[in-house]
Design goal:
The complex is a heterodimer of chains A (about 775) and B (about 150). Chain A starts with a helix and ends with a helix. In chain A, helix 2 packs parallel to helix 3 (about 115-135) and helix 9 (about 370-380) crosses helix 10 (about 405-420). In chain A, a hairpin with a 2-residue loop joins strand 9 and strand 10 (about 265-270). Chain A is globular, with a radius of gyration of 28 Å. In chain A, the strands form seven sheets. In chain A, strands 9-10-7-19-16-17-18 form a seven-stranded mixed β-sheet, with helices on both faces. In chain A, strands 12, 13, 14, 21, 22 and 23 form a six-stranded mixed β-sheet that branches. With about 775 residues, chain A is of the alpha+beta class. Chain B is an alpha+beta fold. Helix content of chain B is about 35%, strand content about 15%. Chain B has five helices and five strands. Chain B has helices spanning about 25-30, 85-90, 100-115, 120-130, 140-150; strands spanning about 1-10, 10-15, 50, 55-60, 70. Chain B has a three-stranded antiparallel β-sheet with strand order 4-3-5, covered by helices on one side. In chain B, strands 1-2 form a two-stranded antiparallel sheet. The chains are: A alpha+beta (about 775), B alpha+beta (about 150). Chains A and B meet through helix 5, helix 6 and helix 16 of A and helix 1, helix 2, helix 3, helix 4 and helix 5 of B.
Chain lengths: ~775, ~150
């Protein structure tokens, strides 16, 4: 107890009240006092900012970093508002006991939503410090100037005081207001964009040196004293029922501690990691297969999806009168597009370590939604949430995978069962087969062109296999809960998606359905939020189809898009139309786009070249991307030789950091375009490792990537220029851009993702290319 | 269990493990070295890469008892308080996103450049081909390697 108090006292800005009252709980009289890990109060300035005596500052934010360097951006924004040098600050992120609950990561909202309270509280701290200095010098605050955390009397520069001298090591005790954490504010106002000095620069990410020299402490490396290692034993067939366990098959193995099972959840716990791995492999278990197949084989997936009765359907979105417009169209084009389930396939499998010392539960995790996991685990273990905390640490990024952090729940459950710290890590085959997946989409698009090649009618029909979508660390939907028998009465509806473009089409209908696979619970083919959850799928369909329509109209694909974008003046509050036009033009200019219809005239030689564009938005962030490909007609191999991205996310905090994130996003979707597909037979997922679940490699890296950061706002200098999320949008149009480039090079339209060599070669041969 | 002595990053360590224990678990769990990571346990991804006898070696599929020469891990690359040029290039180029794979990227690149200090672009691609990254930092990894290779290491 005392050591924990010491830890808390030294770990930062804490508004901690220690209650002596014992509470009754699952640990009876041994339970620790309630209130040991209370929520830091977001309405207290001290929860966000600590000024140290050495005139440095620490910022505490309720965010986690998914590898994009958001912590560096937070420091820039808060340093700027506080008027302190960037390198005199540090940032603490994502642990539930010492940072306010900003939800961790999700929805690319780090800068666009959560950056605002950070800026406002930093501005408020600056205001309070200036007031303190004003009192000290007996002058009004307006008579002061501040730079690099030093306050000076304008009229008498000999009168100066540092932030550290004003408050170092002490608390502000300043209350903030705001209906919720996103609205948190003090009295001070944030600076106009023109006064920001650190925002817009590119300090190097503070986390990178420790990642390059091996000194970073990751969630995978936490080892509390007395820690045990656990490995799961998963059902060999999806939906199988555990009948019996022969514990004698492992009891004599070295280091064996315990077999833990409940329902169909099964784990083996040993002293050492390699012992747990071995024991989990040796354990003899009898499972009963389910009476019916859990899913159709993946090669029949789209036939199944198109024939299934939807579990839910959105009301169609209709503009104009599509049916008469189709009837009078000079030409109607129709095409189906199929995108399979694609895995998060995190580079390192799910892992967490849980420590049940003193009747509490501390979980060390890379969960992007650490706050949600804390609540979920407390509920799952029936513990008061004040006794549970999640310490967020860095981990292998899964781009949404850890939003449903199964391993954290498993570690906590096992630690409670064993009464000792337990580390759980999934094996590669578990992670690849059983992680959450981006939903498969089956889309049908129809377009009607008039005699002049104008798009006059458009019909978008999407079906996604997204029923029982997971992703928020709910105590009754994480995998361990499902395997133990938890069944939510109403599984999450899931969603399909509308195309994310601003094309002005006079007659348009969009229809979205969600379908379910036969097995809803305890299934490895379960969906979660994969980096822009539906965007790459729906945009593959919609932006491929626009390209098909442009070809049908014998129009240049960029000119065709611009014509559709400029056919209306109607815009939204974020000027998405104006900014869409700007990025499409900027990408074409940066690439050096030669205006002509696709495909390119028939080429000779083995290697065919072509270029394709696609554009999309996510929220208010708009991007246009161009892929230049080389297609080898004898092997079917596709190399994306060059990528161009024009990207508008409003105010840019760290341009170099943003460019790296855009590069990563584009190549992530390039991997989805060329390789990624979750395959399964009628019993199990057969994509289980990097051989059966291939991913992009160094051989696929483009020779050149060009990025232009666009500010397409009609008033680009406005002082309140907003910042929008940038973690996902660069993923959204890439698959379509590649497909459009392959069409340009070969005249062959690929409508089924991914574009693996065999599929490309078969399509080329069928078209006699 | 049996007693095995390993030389790692210049220091000798004696551990008591099953001889077949993959070197990765000994490095991480017994010696507390966090550079090498578990990614697949199958020798497919490169997260666990260490250098033994100048060869980039996948420690997740290397039996501890089979190790007869000194092991160098990511922690052992810096010398005299100075980062290895590749590590510095990784910072200068701002290579990592999450960074979990970068042990494999840096260690594989080091073995590549030790063998061939001035590789062509194709040799870099092929030499790095089996070292995976799910944040897809390949373009920046290659740029960082070229920085060092061009600098005449």
């Amino acid at each position: 107890m005392s050591s924990r108090r010491e830890f808390l006292k030294t770990s930062g800005a804490l508004i901690v009240s220690f209650s002596a009252a014992k509470v009754a709980g699952p640990f009876g009289v041994e339970a620790q006092a309630a209130g040991l890990y209370p929520d830091p109060d977001f309405r207290q300035l001290d929860s966000w900012i600590v000024i140290h005596e050495d005139n440095t500052a620490t910022f505490f934010v309720g965010k986690t970093d998914c590898g994009q360097g958001t912590g560096t951006a937070f420091r820039q924004m808060m340093s700027d508002e506080l008027d302190i040098a960037y390198d005199k600050t540090t940032c603490v992120m994502g642990s539930t006991h010492n940072t306010v609950d900003q939800g961790g990561s999700g929805g690319s909202d780090a800068i666009q939503t959560d950056g605002w309270p950070m800026r406002r509280v930093a501005a408020e701290a600056r205001r309070v410090l200036l007031d303190m200095a004003a009192s000290r010098f007996g002058v009004p605050a307006e008579a002061l100037t501040v730079s690099a955390a030093v306050v000076t009397v304008k009229a008498d520069p000999s009168k100066r005081v540092t932030y550290g001298e004003l408050i170092g090591g002490r608390k502000f005790h300043v209350a903030l207001t705001g209906a919720n954490i996103d609205a948190t504010t003090g009295i001070a106002r944030v600076k106009p964009v023109q006064e920001l000095k650190i925002v817009g620069q590119s300090p190097q990410r503070y986390d990178i040196p420790a990642k390059a020299n091996g000194s970073l402490k990751w969630a995978t490396g936490v080892r509390p004293a007395g820690m045990l290692h656990a490995r799961n034993v998963k059902p060999p067939v999806a939906g199988a029922t555990l009948v019996s366990i022969d514990e004698s098959s492992v009891q004599r193995l070295p280091g064996f501690v315990k077999v833990v099972s409940k329902g169909n959840y099964l784990a083996v716990v040993c002293e050492r990691e390699e012992q747990a791995i071995n024991a989990a492999r040796q354990l003899k278990v009898k499972w009963d297969k389910p009476a019916t197949a859990p899913f159709p084989p993946s090669e029949d997936l789209f036939k199944y999806m198109r024939g299934a009765t939807p579990t839910s359907s959105s009301n169609p979105i209709v503009v104009g009168n599509p049916d008469p417009a189709f009837a009078s169209a000079a030409r109607v084009v129709e095409a189906d597009y199929d995108i399979p389930f694609q895995g998060h396939t995190a580079f390192g499998p799910a892992h967490a370590t849980a420590d049940p010392s003193n009747g509490q539960m501390t979980v060390y995790s890379n969960d992007m939604k650490s706050y949600g996991m804390r609540n979920g685990i407390a509920s799952f273990l029936n513990m008061p949430r004040e006794q549970v905390r999640v310490i967020w640490m860095e981990g292998p990024q899964g781009y949404g995978r850890t939003a449903a952090d199964d391993a954290g729940f498993e570690a906590a459950y096992l630690a409670k069962e064993l009464g000792r710290p337990v580390r759980v890590q999934w094996m590669r085959n578990e992670e690849t087969a059983w992680d959450t997946k981006g939903p498969a989409f089956a889309c049908t698009l129809r377009g009607g062109l008039d005699a002049q090649g104008n798009l006059v009618a458009y019909d978008y029909m999407a079906r996604s296999a997204d029923y029982n979508h997971l992703g928020y660390n709910e105590a009754d939907t994480v995998l361990i809960a499902q395997l133990m028998g938890a069944r939510r009465a109403k599984p999450a509806t899931g969603s399909a998606a509308t195309p994310s473009e601003m094309y002005a089409i006079p007659n348009r209908r969009m229809t979205m359905h969600v379908v379910s696979l036969p097995l809803v619970w305890e299934t490895p083919v379960r969906t979660g939020n994969l980096r822009d959850p539906n965007g790459p799928q729906s945009t593959f369909a919609s932006e491929s189809f626009i390209d098909e329509l442009a070809a049908a109209a014998n129009a240049d694909p960029v000119a065709f898009r611009l014509k559709l974008l400029t056919a209306s003046n109607a815009d939204d509050g974020g000027f998405k139309r104006a900014r869409s036009i700007a990025v499409v033009k900027a990408a074409a200019e940066l690439y050096g786009w030669d205006t002509r219809p696709s495909p390119k005239p028939r080429q000779s030689g083995n290697v065919l070249t072509g270029r394709g564009m696609a554009y999309a938005f996510r929220g208010q962030t708009v991007v246009a991307e161009i892929a230049e490909v080389e297609v080898n007609r004898t092997t079917g191999h596709v190399w994306v030789k060059r990528l161009v991205c024009a990207h508008d996310c409003g105010l840019v905090i760290n341009p170099e950091g943003l460019k790296r994130t855009i590069e990563g996003g584009m190549l992530h979707s390039l991997s989805r375009a060329l390789y990624e597909e979750v395959q399964f037979d009628t019993e199990k997922v057969t994509s289980v490792d990097w051989a059966s679940s291939p991913s992009l490699t160094h051989l696929d890296a483009p020779a050149k990537i060009d990025i232009v950061l666009v500010n397409g706002d009609p008033n680009p200098q406005r002082p309140d220029l907003p910042d929008y999320g940038a973690g996902e949008t660069s993923c959204t149009p890439m698959i379509a851009a590649v497909a459009n480039a392959i069409f340009d090079a070969t005249g062959v339209r690929l409508r089924r993702v991914p574009f693996r060599v065999a599929r490309v070669l078969a399509a080329l041969k069928a078209a006699r290319v | 269990m049996s007693t095995i002595t390993l030389k790692v990053n210049g220091a000798s360590h004696t551990v008591d493990v099953e001889p077949s224990t993959p070197l990765l678990y000994v490095l991480r769990n017994d010696l507390g070295l966090e550079g090498p990571k578990f990614g697949c346990g199958l020798g497919q991804c490169g997260a666990c890469t260490v250098i033994i006898n100048g060869v980039a070696t996948r420690s997740c599929v290397t039996a501890t008892s089979s190790v007869k020469s000194e092991v160098t891990t990511l922690e052992g690359l810096a010398a005299g308080g100075k980062l290895h040029p590749l590590q510095q290039a990784w910072i200068d180029e701002q290579v990592p996103q999450c960074g979990f794979c970068q042990n494999g990227q840096i260690m594989t690149a080091k073995a590549l450049l030790d063998r061939n200090p001035h590789p062509t672009d194709t040799q870099i691609r092929e030499g790095m081909a089996r070292t995976l990254c799910r944040c897809m930092t390949y373009y920046r990894v290659q740029a960082a390697i070229k920085r060092v290779a061009g600098g005449g290491v």
